[in-house]
Write a structure and sequence with these properties.
Shape: elongated
Number of helices: 14
Strand content: 5-15%
Radius of gyration: 62 Å
Low-confidence stretches: 449-460
Strand order of the largest sheet: 1-2-3-4-5
Number of strands: 5
Oligomer: single chain
Helix content: over 70%
Distance between the termini: 190 Å
Length: 460
């Protein structure tokens, strides 16, 4: 292998020499060239031998270092063997502790989840109760307990339990305490509030509702009936141990709904222009009934007074005028009958005046109610075609008009029908009384006739 390398080296050296010394090739001889190559070869061999000796010396030194490193590794490994066993043991212990910790966390997580759900629900009920207005300081307890960043402490849980117990106890009490109250104009001031358990609260004779968001009491915009407000005012002022009071089991919601009930003028406004027309006709008919009732009552009194004094007829009443007609008549019996009939007809017209118009009003009122119903339903269907059926409030105006106008038409027509019947019956009674008196007058006329004249009338 070395001879092969030397041959290659000699070849390349000769090639280099021939290349570099080509110009002076004529001056050198083959013997000089051979000696030069031989010298170069010996120098190369000496260099390679020195390198090989250095490599073998370094290889021996590397073996010694490797042996020392292996001995050091074995010493370190022998020293680390107890630590390795301890590490394995520690790993097993850590795994067991982790398993135990996971089990504890799972159990604690279930407890915390149940506690969190329970406290959130109960806290909402506590803040919505009007008792919270009397004890606003417990809001801090609820806020700390519902803090999601930290777990509740045992002291906080115990305080929460005490708050629940206090809430149950206060539910059975009637208490008076100062609190912030928002009046009907939106002004906030501190007033003395009377609380009946968790059901009803009032101040200065006005019922209140509790606002959980602002932690204030609000005066109902519309108070209940005067009877209920008077009960609240009497309860606040009375020192007696037993007093009637209004209890709202829905904690103010029923009172609020009661105050939201539309008033009479709001019902009328929802009926629209048709509703106003019906009420106008109803008022006109009511005035006509009242006027005719008073008129017929006065006429009947005058007639009864005339009957009490039948011998002195008066011009101021129908019966007196008919009697005067019979007395002043010089006609025979047939003509007298016609004259009395004519006198009765003259008196019947004033007695029945306005009855036809009142009958028309009685029939028109329900028809107008039906008209309002139709127009209200038309408006409702138009809104449904524009906005759909998703929002019932948009259709409430048309439905209100449809129902209110129908109700107004019936409300007006029924009393008018009864009124028309009353005055018609009274006028017919007066006319019947006049007919009876006319028959009496005819009988008296025949009594004045001689017997011969009566015989002639019978034969004729």
């Amino acid at each position: 292998m070395i001879n092969y390398r030397l041959s290659l080296y000699t070849f390349f050296s000769l090639l280099i020499y021939l290349t570099s010394e080509g110009v002076n090739a004529q001056e050198n001889t083959l013997q000089a060239l051979l000696m030069n190559v031989k010298n170069k070869q010996q120098q190369s061999m000496q260099i390679n031998k020195e390198r090989e000796t250095a490599f073998l010396a370094e290889q021996s030194q590397q073996k010694k270092l490797l042996f020392k490193a292996e001995e050091a590794f074995r010493d370190v490994q022998a020293q680390n063997q107890p630590l390795l066993q301890e590490t394995i043991k520690n790993d097993q212990t850590i795994q067991e502790l982790n398993e135990e910790l996971a089990s504890e966390i799972e159990a604690l997580g279930d407890i915390y989840s149940v506690l969190n759900s329970f406290t959130n629900e109960i806290s909402k009920d506590l803040t919505q109760s009007m008792i919270h207005g009397q004890f606003p300081q417990r809001q801090q307890i609820l806020t700390e307990l519902n803090n999601k960043q930290t777990l509740p402490t045992l002291a906080q849980i115990s305080q929460f339990w005490f708050t629940l117990l206090h809430q149950m106890i206060e539910t059975s009490y009637i208490a008076q305490f100062p609190a912030k109250v928002i009046d009907q104009k939106g002004n906030t001031k501190e007033q003395e509030v009377t609380r009946i358990g968790t059901f009803t609260a009032f101040s200065e004779g006005k019922y209140l509702t509790w606002l959980p968001l602002s932690q204030e009491f609000l005066v109902l915009q519309r108070q209940p009936s005067t009877k209920l407000t008077q009960i609240a005012e009497n309860f606040s002022l009375s020192s007696s141990t037993i007093q009637p009071i209004v209890i709202d089991p829905s904690q103010g919601k029923l009172l609020a709904m009661l105050t939201e009930k539309p008033l009479l003028n709001e019902h009328v406004q929802s009926g629209g222009i048709v509703g106003y027309i019906i009420l106008t006709l109803g008022a006109l008919g009511a005035m006509l009934i009242f006027y005719r009732f008073i008129y017929l009552w006065l006429i009947q009194k005058q007639i009864m007074r005339q009957l009490a004094n039948i011998d002195s007829p008066q011009e101021s009443n129908p019966l007196g005028r008919i009697m005067l007609t019979a007395i002043s008549s010089q006609a025979n019996h047939s003509q007298l009958e016609y004259e009395l009939d004519e006198a009765i007809l003259k008196e019947v017209t004033p007695l029945e005046r306005g009855h036809g118009f009142l009958k028309v009003l009685t029939g028109v009122a329900p028809l107008l109610g039906l008209l309002g119903t139709i127009t209200g339903m038309i408006e409702t269907f138009q809104l449904m075609s524009l906005y759909g059926t998703g929002d019932a409030k948009l259709m409430s105006s048309g439905i209100s008009q449809a129902l209110v106008t129908t109700a107004l038409g019936l409300i007006v027509a029924i009393p008018l029908l009864f009124g028309h019947n009353i005055i018609t019956t009274r006028s017919k009674r007066i006319v019947h009384l006049l007919d009876e008196q006319c028959a009496g007058l005819m009988a008296k006329f025949f009594e004045r006739l001689p017997q011969s004249k009566l015989n002639e009338l019978e034969n004729s």
